[in-house]
Amino acid sequence: MRNDNRRPSRRLSEQDAKIIKDRLKQGDMQSRIAADFDVNIGRISEINTGKKFAHA
């Protein structure tokens, strides 16, 4: 069954990734950052591990 009320996560830019990396370095929790950017915590984890935006 498909839930049509769901909306896709926001697409992150390279600038967003730089901000996220800075916040991670400052010790912000991934869940808080994800909520602030309206994305799934998995997207933040991918940035943190270098799977996404490794060059940023």
Q: Which spans have pLDDT < 50 for at least 5 consecutive residues?
A: none
Alpha-carbon Rg, integer: 12 Å
Report the sheet-strand fraction.
Answer: under 5%
Shape: globular
SSE arrangement, N to C? HHH
Number of strands: 0
Number of separate helices: 3
**Span of the ends, CA to CA:** 38 Å
Mean pLDDT: 91
Q: Which structural class matches the secondary elements?
A: mainly alpha
Strand count, sense and barrel status of the largest sheet are: none
Instruction: Give the fraction of residues assigned to helices.
Output: 40-55%
Task: Note down, in words, how this protein is organized.
- 52% of the residues lie in helices and 0% in strands.
- By secondary structure, it is mostly helical.
How are the secondary structure elements laid out?
Elements: H1 14-25, H2 30-37, H3 41-49
Helix pairs in contact: 2-3
Key structural traits:
56 residues, mainly alpha, 0% strand
Quick gist of this model?
The protein contains three helices and no strands. With 56 residues, it is mostly helical. The protein is 52% helix and 0% strand.
